[in-house]
Design a protein that fits this description.
The complex is a heterotrimer of chains A (564), B (311) and C (327).
Chain A (H helix, E strand, L loop, with lengths): L3 H25 L14 E5 L22 H6 L4 E4 L4 E4 L2 E7 L4 E6 L13 H13 L12 E8 L2 E6 L6 H6 L6 H4 L19 E7 L3 E6 L13 E5 L4 H9 L5 E2 L6 H4 L8 E3 L7 E6 L9 H9 L3 H9 L21 H6 L7 H10 L19 E7 L3 H15 L4 E7 L1 H9 L5 E4 L7 H9 L21 H12 L3 H18 L3 E5 L5 E3 L3 E2 L21 H5 L3 E2 L1
Parallel strand pairs in A: 1-10, 1-11, 14-15, 14-16
Antiparallel strand pairs in A: 2-3, 4-5, 5-7, 6-7, 8-9, 9-10, 11-18, 12-18, 13-16, 13-17, 19-20
Helix pairs in contact in A: 8-11, 9-12, 14-15, 14-16, 15-16
Chain B lengths: L10 H11 L1 H24 L28 H37 L1 H16 L2 H11 L4 H28 L2 H8 L4 H12 L1 H24 L10 H10 L2 H4 L6 H25 L1 H15 L14
Helix pairs in contact in B: 1-2, 1-9, 1-12, 2-3, 2-12, 3-4, 3-6, 3-9, 4-6, 5-6, 6-9, 7-8, 9-10, 9-12, 10-12
Chain C lengths: L1 H27 L4 H4 L10 H10 L7 H13 L14 H5 L2 H29 L4 H15 L2 H15 L19 H38 L2 H8 L4 H39 L4 H10 L3 H29 L1 H7 L1
The chains are: A alpha+beta (564), B mainly alpha (311), C mainly alpha (327).
C-alpha cells in the first residue's frame, strides 16, 4: 500500500501533466496577437483563384488547365483589350485593325517598340506563330478561331493578315482577345498543351517570378514593359486559399488588397469593418442567368407558355434570397450592363413578360387552353398533369435558392416543378444533350451581342437531342434571328451593326426563346490601405473584377493601381 | 429472450436493467428518447424547413428560436427536420453494419478453417484501409443522396463488427451449449441463429450503438464536405450550408452551433448508454459496485484507491 | 521475425487490395471525368476542343484487363497519372509536399492525444473516484462526440476570428520563408496549434477510457499486488508494472486509430485551410479531378499501412510474448 504522502506527491505530478501541456500551448501562442503581415510597399496581394496549393503553370494558351491567374491578366497580353464598362476596345499590342477584300481579310497593325521580357523585340512573327500553334493543337484553340480563319501571315514586321474562310466579322473579337506568346520560345516547345511554362517570357507588366511556393507566389514587375514608367506596383503576390470563405476571411483581415469573390452581407461583413479603406463595386456586367425551357418538349414549344412561366417568377424575391440584392431583375432583352451601348430601352419596354404578374400568367395559360385539373395542376394536351423537373447544380447555392423561388412561383400558376440538383458534370451533360425540362444556365458573353443571341436563338446552333451542344441547350431556332445574325456576321459598319443589334433584341423580346432571370454581378472587392486606384462606381474606368481576365481587362486595372 | 448462459446478464433484459440501474445509462436513454421524439413528431410542428421565412442571418429571437440562415430559413426548423434523416441513416446504417458484420464474423468464427482465413483476411484488409477517405472516393463517384451515403457507410464500417463478432463466436464455439447442439445434429444455420446469436444479443446491441455513433459522425462529415444531397435538410447539409454561406465571416454562429451540439448530444447519449451498460455487465466493475455498497452499509467511506478484486 | 514477415505479407495484400479497388471503382461508376473539365470554362470550350483534350488525358477505350496491368505498372513506377485540375502537373508532384503536412498534423495529434489520454487514463485508474476519474472521462466523451471539424470551426471562430490569438489558416505565415530556424518553427507550431489541438480534444477520450478500464483490471492482478507487496514505490508499480501491461490493448488500437485520425484530420485541414492532403483530396473531389483524388487515396492508404507496420514493431517490443511465439 502506498503512503498518503507518496500518493499526494504522485498525484501532483500527474495533475501537472495537463498543466504542462496547457502551458506549452500557451507558449506556442505567446505573441499570438494577430500581426498584419508586413507587406513591402507596392506589393499588390490578390486572391482570384482558390487552390489548396499552387502548381507552377504560366501557360497562356492551354485549355487543359487553368494557369495561374496572372498569366492572362498581367503576364501575357492580347492584341486589343476590351473594356466592358465602356464597351470599347483599347489598342494594346495591336494598334489598329482594318477589314479588306469585302471583309474577308483582317489586317492588324502592331505596336512598335514592344519588347519581350527577355529583351527581344515583339513582331508580327510572334502573332503568326501564336495562331499557328492554335491550328496545330486544337486543344489550344479555346475560342475556335480556326473555325473561320483560313490563313494567318506576317506580311510585314509589324503587320499581320488574317484571311478568313468565310466572311465573319465577329471573328475579330476572338482574334483580338488572343494572348500572344513569343515565337523564339514557343516555336521549340514540343507539346504546348502540357507545357507548364514555369518562367514566362512575355510582354505584360508582371513577368518575373520572384517566389514560388505551394502556399504563395510573387511576380515582380517587367523591367522592360512597353508602357514606360508602368506599372506603378512593384509586384503581385498571390496566397493560396482553399475556398472562397478562407479568402474572404483574409480579405476582411486586411491580408488581401484585391479579390473577386462573392461575400454575403458585404456592407456589414467587409465594408463595416473599415469604412475608410474597404470597398467594393459589383457592376452588373457578368453573364445573364436564364431559366431555360426545353423547346423540343411540349408545352415549352409554345411561346405563351414560356412567357407565362416568366411572369410567374418573383425576381425581386429571387434576388433577395439568392443574391443578397447584388443584382436586379433581368431586362426582357436579356442583355446585361456589359452591352449598355447596344441596349435599346424602347425595345426592352415593349416586352411585358419579364415581370412578376401571376394573374397575367394564369390568363395566358388559360387562353392557350391549358386548363387546370381538379387538383389545381394544369393539364397537357394529352391529359397528363404539368409536372416538371427544374435542374440545377448541386453546391451552387445561388442557383439552388433561385430554383426554389422559381418553383414556388410556378406552383401558383398550376405548374408543379421540383428542384433537382445534379453534380456539375452530370448537370452539364444533361443540358448539353438537351435532356431536361427546365434548367438554370448561364449565357454567353462577348464584346457584341452577337455571341449572346447566337447561342440563344440561332437555328445553326440547334443540335439534335442527345448530341452535345456548347450552347443553345434549350434548342431554339428562329428564322428571323438567323437572318439578322447572318447579316451581323458580314457587317463591319458600326451604325448598321447597331441597327442589327436592335433587330436581335426585338426578336428576342417577341419570341422569348429563354427566360432571363438576372444579370450576374462582376465581383470585385478592394482594400485601399496600401494600394490606390481601383475602379469604383465613381471612377468606372474599367471593370473592377480580377475575374475579368479573359479579354485582358485586368491589364487596365493593373497598370493603373499604385502604392499609396 | 435468451437463456442466462453466462454468469452475467445478457440480452435485452440486461439493457433494460442497465438503463434502470445506472444513472449514466438512464441519462443516455432519456436524451436518445428526446431526439427520437424530435425526429418523429418534430417536423409536423415546424413547417417547411426550406421556406424562406424572413430576413437572412437574423440572430436567435422569439420569432426564430435559433435565428435564420444566410438564405432566410428558420434554423430551428432545419435542425428539427434534419434530425429525422440523420437519425434514420445513423440507426439504419448502425443496424446494417452489425448485420453484415455478424454475417461475416459469425460465419468465419463458426466454420473456422479456410472460410475463417479468407473472411478474416477480407475484413482485416477493410479495417486497415482508412475508412473516411474510402468513403469519400466512393461517394464522389455515386449520385449523391441518402441511399448513397448509407451504402458508403456500410461498406466502410462493417469490418470492425465482423472482427469483434468473430472473436466472440470463437469463444462460444467451444461452449457446452453449442457443443450440445452440434451433437444433437442441428444444422449450422439453426445453431447460429438459435443458439449463438441470442447468446450474443447484448453484445450485438452494444455493437449497434457503437456503429450508430460511427454512422452519424461519418455521415455528418461526408455531408459537410458536400458529398451528400445538399438540397435535402439533414444535420450534415446544415453544416455544409453554414460553411458555404460563410458562417464564420458573417458571425452567424447560430447556423452551425446548434447542429453540432445536436450531433454531439446524440453521440454522447449513445456513449453513455454503452458505458453504463458496460458498468453493469462487466463483472469486475459490478463487483466493485457491490463492494462499495457493502462499505456504505457498514458505515465506511469508500477509499479512493482501487480495491483489489480478483478477476 | 516470422510474426513481422506475416504482418508484412498482410500489408502487401492490403495494399494490393487498395490498388485494385482504386482501379475498378471509377470504372464501375457512372460519369466521365473529362466533362468535369468544362467546369472551369463555363462553356467557353467547344466539343471539338474537348475531344482533343480527352486524348491528351489518355481517356481512351481499351480492354479493361490491359488497362489494369498498365495501371499497376505505372503505380510501381510511382506514376499516378496526371491531375486534371493541375494539368499538366503529374499527380505525384501535386501530392508531393502535401503528405508532409498531413503526416505532421495527423501524426502529432495522434501521438499527443495518445500520450495525454493514456497518462490521464492511468491517473484516473489510480485515483478511482477521484476528481480526474469523475470528471475527465465524461468531459472527454462529450467532446469526442462532437465532429472534429465542428470543434475546429468553433475553435477557429472563437480563438482565431473573434479573439485573434491564432492564425486563420495555412501552415506558416505568408511572409516567412521555410527553413530550419526558430522563427519558422515557431510559426509552424503557432499555425498547427489549433488543428492539432482540436483533433487531440476530440480523440483523447477514447484513449483515456480504454487505458483507465484496462488499468483497473491490471491493477487488480496478482503481479501488481506482488510488486506492491515488495514495497516498490507507487510510481514504479504504476508505470513499470501496471501501465506497461495495460498499454497493450491501446497499442493495438493505435494502429486502428491511425486511419481514423487521418480521416478526421482531413476534415480539420479543410476547416483550417491547412495545405495537407485533406484539402487537396476534398478539392479533387469537388473538381472531379479523379486521378488526383485516387492518387491521394492511394497515398493515404499506403501511409496508413506503413504506419501500422511500425505499430507492429512497437508491439513486438512491448509484448515479449509475440517474440516468443514468433521464434
Amino acid at each position: 500500500m502506498t503512503t498518503p504522502v507518496q500518493q499526494r506527491r504522485w498525484r501532483r505530478v500527474a495533475a501537472a501533466a495537463p498543466l504542462i501541456t496547457a502551458m506549452t500551448i500557451a507558449l506556442i501562442c505567446a505573441g499570438c496577437v494577430r500581426k498584419r503581415p508586413p507587406h513591402p510597399p507596392g506589393v499588390l496581394v490578390v486572391s482570384q483563384e482558390q487552390a489548396a496549393s499552387w502548381v507552377r503553370n504560366f501557360n497562356p494558351l492551354t485549355t487543359a488547365t487553368a494557369p495561374r491567374w496572372p498569366t492572362l491578366s498581367g503576364i501575357y497580353e492580347p492584341l486589343f483589350v476590351f473594356n466592358s464598362v465602356k464597351a470599347a476596345y483599347v489598342p494594346w499590342l495591336g494598334l489598329a485593325h482594318e477589314w479588306r477584300d469585302g471583309n474577308r481579310v483582317l489586317r492588324i497593325t502592331l505596336r512598335d517598340g514592344v519588347l519581350w521580357s527577355d529583351g527581344r523585340p515583339f513582331t508580327a512573327r510572334d502573332v503568326a506563330l501564336t495562331f499557328e500553334l492554335l491550328r496545330r493543337h486544337p486543344a489550344l484553340d479555346r475560342r475556335g478561331v480556326w473555325g473561320f480563319v483560313e490563313r494567318v501571315e506576317a506580311i510585314a514586321p509589324l503587320t499581320v493578315e488574317f484571311t478568313f474562310a468565310r466572311i465573319f466579322v465577329p471573328g475579330f473579337d476572338e482574334i483580338a482577345a488572343q494572348q500572344i506568346v513569343p515565337e523564339h520560345i514557343w516555336a521549340g516547345i514540343e507539346d504546348p498543351v502540357a507545357f507548364a511554362n514555369e518562367n514566362p517570357v512575355a510582354t505584360g507588366p508582371f513577368t518575373e517570378v520572384r517566389v514560388f511556393q505551394n502556399q504563395i507566389y510573387e511576380l515582380g514587375r517587367n523591367p522592360r514593359y512597353w508602357q514606360t514608367g508602368l506599372p506603378h506596383l512593384e509586384a503581385l503576390r498571390c496566397p493560396a486559399y482553399p475556398s472562397n470563405d478562407r479568402a474572404n476571411l483574409a480579405l476582411v483581415f486586411d491580408e488581401i488588397d484585391w479579390a473577386g469573390n462573392f461575400i454575403p452581407a458585404i456592407d456589414r461583413v467587409f465594408v463595416g469593418r473599415n469604412r475608410e479603406h474597404h470597398g467594393y463595386w459589383f457592376p452588373l456586367t457578368g453573364s445573364t442567368i436564364f431559366l431555360y425551357a426545353n423547346t423540343t418538349r411540349v408545352p415549352f414549344d409554345d411561346v405563351r407558355v414560356r412567357k407565362a412561366l416568366s411572369l410567374a417568377i418573383d425576381r425581386e424575391l429571387l434576388i433577395d434570397v439568392a443574391l443578397h440584392r447584388y443584382s436586379r431583375p433581368a431586362d426582357p432583352t436579356g442583355l446585361s450592363d456589359a452591352y449598355s451601348s447596344w441596349h435599346d430601352a424602347e425595345i426592352a419596354a415593349s416586352g411585358d413578360w419579364v415581370r412578376f404578374d401571376p394573374e397575367r400568367a394564369n390568363q395566358l395559360l388559360d387562353q392557350a387552353g391549358y386548363a387546370r385539373g381538379p387538383d389545381g395542376i394544369r393539364r397537357l394536351p394529352d391529359g397528363h398533369p404539368w409536372e416538371f423537373e427544374l435542374q440545377t447544380v448541386s453546391g451552387w447555392s445561388d442557383w439552388v435558392r433561385a430554383s426554389q423561388v422559381i418553383t414556388r412561383g410556378l406552383a401558383a400558376i398550376g405548374v408543379r416543378a421540383t428542384v433537382r440538383t445534379y453534380d456539375f458534370g452530370a448537370w452539364f451533360q444533361r443540358v448539353q444533350e438537351g435532356k431536361f425540362d427546365l434548367s438554370l444556365g448561364w449565357s454567353f458573353e462577348g464584346p457584341t451581342p452577337y455571341p449572346f443571341y447566337r447561342w440563344l436563338m440561332s437555328s445553326a446552333a440547334v443540335k439534335p437531342i442527345g448530341e452535345v451542344s456548347m450552347g443553345n441547350w434549350h434548342r431554339y431556332g428562329s428564322a428571323r434571328a438567323d437572318t439578322a445574325l447572318a447579316a451581323f456576321e458580314r457587317e463591319a459598319d458600326p451604325e448598321r451593326l447597331r441597327s442589327l443589334g436592335d433587330d436581335l433584341q426585338r426578336i428576342f423580346v417577341e419570341e422569348a426563346p429563354a427566360i432571363p432571370l438576372y444579370p450576374n454581378p462582376s465581383w470585385a472587392e478592394y482594400n485601399t490601405t496600401r494600394i490606390a486606384g481601383f475602379p469604383t462606381a465613381a471612377n468606372p474606368f474599367a471593370d473592377p473584377s480580377p475575374n475579368k481576365f479573359d479579354r485582358g481587362e485586368c491589364l487596365l486595372v493593373l497598370t493603373t493601381l499604385a502604392p499609396r | 429472450m435468451s437463456d442466462p448462459r453466462d454468469n452475467v446478464r445478457t440480452g435485452w433484459s440486461a439493457w433494460a436493467w442497465a438503463i434502470r440501474r445506472d444513472r449514466k445509462a438512464s441519462i443516455g436513454a432519456a436524451l436518445l428518447l428526446f431526439f427520437a421524439a424530435l425526429a418523429l413528431i418534430g417536423p409536423w410542428f415546424t413547417g417547411d424547413p426550406d421556406a424562406l421565412v424572413g430576413v437572412p442571418l437574423q440572430a436567435p429571437s422569439a420569432a426564430h428560436w435559433l435565428g435564420t440562415t444566410a438564405q432566410g430559413q428558420d434554423v430551428f426548423a432545419q435542425l428539427v427536420v434534419g434530425t429525422r434523416i440523420s437519425l434514420a441513416i445513423g440507426f439504419g446504417v448502425g443496424l446494417f453494419v452489425v448485420l453484415l458484420g455478424a454475417l461475416v464474423g459469425v460465419t468465419a468464427g463458426y466454420f473456422g478453417g479456410k472460410v475463417d482465413a479468407l473472411l478474416s483476411l477480407v475484413f482485416n484488409v477493410f479495417l486497415v484501409i482508412p475508412g473516411l477517405p474510402l468513403a469519400i472516393v466512393i461517394a464522389a463517384y455515386l449520385p449523391s443522396g441518402p441511399l448513397t451515403l448509407a451504402l458508403v457507410l456500410v461498406v466502410t464500417g462493417w469490418a470492425w463488427n465482423a472482427r469483434v463478432l468473430r472473436a466472440q463466436t470463437l469463444a462460444y464455439r467451444n461452449r457446452d451449449f453449442v457443443s450440445a447442439a452440434i451433437v444433437t445434429g442441428e444444422s449450422s444455420a439453426r445453431i447460429i441463429v438459435r443458439e449463438i446469436l441470442p447468446a450474443m444479443s447484448s453484445l450485438l446491441l452494444a455493437q449497434v450503438i457503437g456503429s450508430t455513433i460511427y454512422a452519424i459522425g461519418a455521415q455528418v462529415g461526408l455531408e459537410f464536405l458536400g458529398l451528400g444531397d445538399v438540397s435535402r435538410v439533414t444535420w450534415g447539409t446544415n453544416l455544409y450550408w453554414a460553411q458555404n454561406d460563410s458562417a464564420l465571416l458573417t458571425g452567424a454562429w447560430w447556423t452551425f452551433a446548434p447542429t453540432g451540439l445536436a450531433v454531439a448530444l446524440v453521440g454522447f447519449a449513445l456513449s453513455l448508454l454503452n458505458s453504463g451498460f458496460d458498468e453493469i455487465t462487466n463483472p469486475r466493475l459490478e463487483m466493485e459496485r457491490a463492494w462499495r455498497r457493502e462499505l456504505r452499509r457498514t458505515g465506511q467511506v469508500p477509499g479512493e484507491s482501487t480495491p483489489v478484486v480478483r478477476g | 521475425m516470422l510474426y513481422l514477415l506475416k504482418r508484412l505479407g498482410f500489408y502487401l495484400i492490403a495494399a494490393f487490395a487498395a490498388l485494385t479497388l482504386n482501379f475498378f471503382l471509377p470504372r464501375l461508376m457512372p460519369g466521365d471525368p473529362a466533362t468535369a473539365l468544362f467546369a472551369r470554362f463555363r462553356g467557353r470550350l467547344g466539343p471539338e476542343a474537348l475531344e482533343a483534350l480527352r486524348e491528351t488525358f489518355g481517356l481512351t477505350e481499351g480492354p479493361l484487363i490491359t488497362q489494369y496491368f498498365t495501371y499497376l505498372a505505372h503505380v510501381f513506377r510511382g506514376d499516378l497519372g496526371i491531375s486534371i485540375a493541375y494539368f499538366p502537373a503529374p499527380v505525384s508532384e501535386v501530392i508531393g509536399n502535401g503528405l508532409v503536412w498531413t503526416v505532421f498534423i495527423a501524426g502529432s495529434s495522434l501521438v499527443l492525444s495518445f500520450a495525454l489520454g493514456t497518462l490521464l487514463g492511468i491517473a484516473a485508474a489510480w485515483w478511482r473516484r477521484g476528481w480526474i476519474d469523475t470528471w475527465l472521462p465524461a468531459t472527454f466523451t462529450l467532446l469526442g462526440a462532437f465532429p472534429y471539424f465542428w470543434l475546429a470551426m468553433v475553435a477557429l471562430y472563437l480563438l482565431g476570428f473573434t479573439l485573434g490569438w491564432f492564425p486563420l489558416g495555412h501552415a506558416y505565415g505568408d511572409d516567412i520563408s521555410p527553413g530550419w530556424n526558430a522563427t519558422f518553427i515557431g510559426d509552424l507550431f503557432r499555425h498547427a496549434a489549433l488543428p492539432i489541438g482540436t483533433v487531440v480534444l476530440g480523440t483523447m477520450g477514447g484513449w483515456l477510457l480504454s487505458m483507465r478500464n484496462t488499468m483497473i483490471g491490471v491493477l487488480g492482478s496478482d503481479f501488481v499486488n506482488l510488486a506492491r507487496a515488495k514495497g516498490l514505490s507507487p510510481a514504479r508499480v504504476v508505470l513499470r508494472y501496471a501501465a506497461r501491461n495495460a498499454l497493450l490493448p491501446s497499442v493495438t488500437g493505435f494502429g486502428m486509430a491511425l486511419g481514423f485520425v487521418l480521416g478526421g484530420s482531413l476534415l480539420t485541414e479543410v476547416v483550417f485551410s491547412y495545405p495537407g492532403q485533406g484539402y487537396l483530396f476534398v478539392q479533387a473531389v469537388r473538381n472531379q479531378d479523379y486521378p488526383l483524388m485516387q492518387g491521394v487515396f492511394l497515398v493515404i492508404t499506403l501511409a496508413v499501412l506503413a504506419a501500422n507496420w511500425c505499430v507492429d514493431l512497437l508491439y513486438l517490443w512491448l509484448d515479449p510474448r509475440t517474440r516468443d511465439t514468433a521464434s
